[in-house]
Every structure is written in C-alpha cells, then in structure tokens.
Design brief:
Layout (H helix, E strand, L loop, with lengths): L1 E4 L3 H11 L5 E4 L3 H5 L7 E5 L5 E6 L4 H9 L3
Parallel strand pairs: 1-2
Antiparallel strand pairs: 3-4
C-alpha cells in the first residue's frame, strides 16, 4: 500500500497510471497520516506486521535488496 502525502488526487492518479502501480494508493491530502506517524521525510517506508505493529521504518528510496534486508531481520 502507498500513501500519497499532500498531493492532488488527479496528480496521484496520473502517477499511479504512468508507473503501472497495482497496489492500493491512499490520499493523505491534509498530511494528517504523516503527522500521526511522525514521518520525517518522503519517501518513507513502514514495515507493519500482520498484527498492525510497526516493526521498522526507512526514510528515503527503497530497493528490493533493502526490503529483503529488513525482512530478513524478522525471520
């Protein structure tokens, strides 16, 4: 899932279409989600387990290798 912070709905829809994204993208037009989770930079990635617990987070661009490294720590 992705959350777009303080972006217009039309801009987000255009980006999602151009990138061919197939996962859910939510709008945080007022940045309330970002404030609630104390997002200090964008992009930000939160790793949330099945119980809804934030296990870790990363500020900045992500790669498949970085994601694998974070997830390896949980196994």
């Amino acid at each position: 899932m992705a959350v777009s912070v303080a972006e217009a709905k039309a801009d987000v829809a255009s980006f999602v279409e151009k990138q061919g994204l197939t996962f859910t993208t939510l709008l945080d037009e007022q940045a309330s989600f970002a404030r609630a989770y104390k997002v200090s930079g964008i992009p930000a990635t939160f790793f949330i387990d099945r119980d809804g617990v934030i296990r870790d987070h990363h500020i900045g661009p992500m790669s498949a290798e970085l994601i694998a490294n974070y997830m390896a720590d949980w196994q």
